[in-house]
Recover the amino acids of this structure.
C-alpha cells in the first residue's frame, strides 16, 4: 500500500470512531463538532498535498478523493450535531 492510502485508512477509522462517540454524547455537540472539523481539515490537507505533489494520475485522483471525503465528513458532522435543520 501507498503511504497516502494508509493515512487515509487511519483517518477513516478515526472518523468512524468519532461518529460513534458523537452519537452517544449528544450533549457535548460543540466538542464533537470541533473534532470532526479537525479530522476533516487534516484529511483535506493530506489530499491536497497528494493531489499537488504527485505526477501519477491515479495518485492525483486518490488525493482528490480524500478532499471529497473531507467535504462529506463536514456535511455529516453538521448533520450529526443538529446544526442543519431537518425536514
Amino acid at each position: 500500500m501507498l503511504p497516502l492510502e494508509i493515512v487515509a485508512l487511519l483517518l477513516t477509522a478515526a472518523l468512524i470512531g468519532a461518529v460513534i462517540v458523537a452519537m452517544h454524547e449528544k450533549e457535548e455537540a460543540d466538542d464533537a463538532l470541533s473534532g470532526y472539523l479537525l479530522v476533516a481539515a487534516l484529511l483535506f490537507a493530506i489530499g491536497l498535498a497528494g493531489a499537488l505533489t504527485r505526477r501519477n494520475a491515479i495518485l492525483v485522483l486518490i488525493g482528490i478523493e480524500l478532499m471529497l471525503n473531507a467535504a462529506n465528513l463536514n456535511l455529516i458532522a453538521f448533520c450529526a450535531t443538529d446544526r442543519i435543520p431537518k425536514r
In short: Residues 29-53 form the longest helix (25 residues). Residues 3-80 form one domain. The chain has a mean pLDDT of 77. The chain has one domain: 3-80.
